[in-house]
Amino acid sequence: MSRQYIDCREFPSTMNCSVALSADTEGELLDAAVQHAVSVHGHADTPELRKQLATLFKTGTPPVQAPAQQKVPA
Ligand SMILES: [Zn+2]
Questions:
Q1: I need a labelling partner for 8 at 20 to 30 A (CA). Which of 1, 29, 32, 53 fits?
Q2: Separation of alpha carbons 5 and 24, rounded Å
Q3: Domain segments of the chain: what residues?
């Protein structure tokens, strides 16, 4: 099973979150991502949120450099 990750830097947010999460299984990553989305971004833990997060997972490990994003210049 290959490593998977989700990188908050890819998604513009009001708080410019720079957290990236990675795990060996989709289940672990989903749990971590849901906890992060709820505690940091104030989302509700719903089946819809879990489904949406799962579509954002990528194979590999988070890049050192911040990925490209449509960030509004400060
Ligand atoms: Zn985040």
A1: 1
A2: 9
A3: 4-59
- What does the DSSP assignment read for the chain? ---EEEEGGGS--TT----EEEESSHHHHHHHHHHHHHHTT-----HHHHHHHHTT-EES---SSPPP--PPP-
For ligand 1, the distance from its centroid to the CA atom of residue 24, given in whole angstroms, is 19
Residue 60 CA, ligand 1 centroid: distance in Å: 18
- If you search the block for the tokens 């989903």, which residue do you land on? 30
Ligand 1 mean position, distance from CA 33 (Å): 8
List, for residues 36-68, the tens digit of each pLDDT value.
Answer: 999 999 999 999 999 999 999 999 999 988 877
